[in-house]
Amino acid sequence: MRFFTFAAPSRFYALSGVLIPWFWLATVCLTVLGLYLGFFVAPTDATQGEAYRIIFIHVPAAWMSMVLYLVMAGWAVVGWAFKARLASMVARAIAPTGAMFTFLALWTGAFWGKPTWGAWWVWDARLTSELILLFLYLGYIALTESIDDDRRADSAGALVALVGAINVPIIYFSVRWWNTLHQGASVSIAAAPKMAETMLTAMLVMTFACWAYAFAVVFMRTRAIVLEREAHTDWVKALREEAP
């Protein structure tokens, strides 16, 4: 099987149709397990009490917001540079999901900040750069949707996504570069985890749940975009004839 076997919209459409139900099943199972571990099994934090439990939603959402932006930018640039139609479609499909996770990270962060900082919002470096990330997602969506010609829209969106990617390392390293209220990373590749094993397990399970959800939703949205853009092709016409 060649690497680009499923680069054709028709083949991707068929493959994703098979995978989507499995991703939804994984989403439900992992979410139930992660929330159970995080809210009922993990011990109470000695400093923050029960309020810290929002970490099991906040941290995976924040991780997803950054990673999905880089993935979106990567696919957008691939579509722009190599005229790969499917890559540009996937980039567009990722944007709303990335924006949702960014909003969720900001919203849960506010609920976490109120009992720990005494304020819903502060103009902290981490919070401000995350808010900018939300605006970048919304800007990409608005720009690509405002241009009627798909190729021009994909090219313009890729440029915005590429330039905006510089904000992701700023978000990640903000707690190191500046003196901020936001706590440092509890999980790092370069160091041992700074939390109990049960807490770490719950957080990782919720992260996998977020990934499963992202794949399911992005694949569904990509399929819809494929049908819209490939409406003139024979294989889409055949699908319409087969539909009841």
What would you note in describing this structure?
With 244 residues, the protein is an all-alpha fold. 75% of the residues lie in helices and 0% in strands. The protein has eight helices and no strands. Helix 1 (9-41) packs antiparallel against helix 7 (197-229). The protein is globular, with a radius of gyration of 20 Å.
Break the fold down into its secondary structure elements and pairings.
Blueprint: H1 9-41, H2 55-82, H3 85-117, H4 125-146, H5 150-164, H6 167-177, H7 197-229, H8 234-242
Summarize it.
The protein is mostly helical.
**How far apart lie the N and C ends?**
33 Å
Our count of helices gives: 8
Share in helix: over 70%
Assess the beta-strand content as a share of residues: under 5%
Main sheet makeup: none
Return residue spans where pLDDT drops below 50 for at least 5 consecutive residues. none
Shape: globular
The SSE string, one letter per element, is HHHHHHHH
What descriptors fit this protein?
244 residues, mainly alpha, 8 helices
